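Review this:
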Amino acid sequence: MHTQLLALAAVACYFTGGALIGLRLLRPDQPYAPPRALALLPGYAALLLHLFSLYQELVTPVGFNLGFFSVGALVGWTVVALLMISALTKPVENLGILLMPMAGITVILALRFPDLKLLGGASQPGLNAHILLSLVAYSLLMLAAVQALLLAVQEQHLHNRHPGGFIRALPPLQTMETLLFEMIGVGFFLLSLALISGFVYLEDMLAQHIVHKTILSLISWLVFATLLWGRFQFGWRGRTAIRWALSGFVLLALAYFGSKFVLEFVLRV
């Protein structure tokens, strides 16, 4: 019951934070738009509450619980944590208008559909490091995908010469693109480390049921590698960069959550 109350309080803070950021973004000139620090405060509170509830849900006496919805809630927490850390030094807080409610939804799903899939990883620190790298890489690239969506909206408004509304509250287009490629660059590096460390524990892809996950992850890696090469070699930007970034993330999402959903809910492995 204590865990549920913490989780519900985290949900309330996530949605409050998203609403306050949305108010700043959509009505930046209105007197009732909250200051930046106040808009961010519920996000930090949500992270703390969510962390306590996650720990009790994920850490069991016999191993880590890596069930589908539990991992979804963990990814939601990690994404918002990376966002809030980045917001201390960079103008990325507007991503919270989508990411905070999404994190709240992952908490609700984990409460509604409790699941248990144990990983007895206490004696496998290398495997735990692989999981951590994968989680952070996925979260960073998810941040990049949301940044790409926001960049697409911003570019469309500027192209149509409608720079009013929330567009005025966003950083300049060049700054938005720079932030996008910074996220992709760090995420790609961590994804590379995650794939390398994963191959250490790869024994039999068929027996371990990770053929599709491995193939889709490698294709996603190639997509992000091509995007970074195109940026460095040809100065790719705008819609080209957005398409490649979103394509890479969709493949990565299918690799992890798509494969995990099929294994746990369809094949019951």
The radius of gyration is 19 Å. The chain has two domains: 1-123, 124-269. The longest strand covers residues 63-65. The helical segments are 2-26, 36-58, 68-86, 96-112, 125-159, 173-200, 211-234, 238-266.
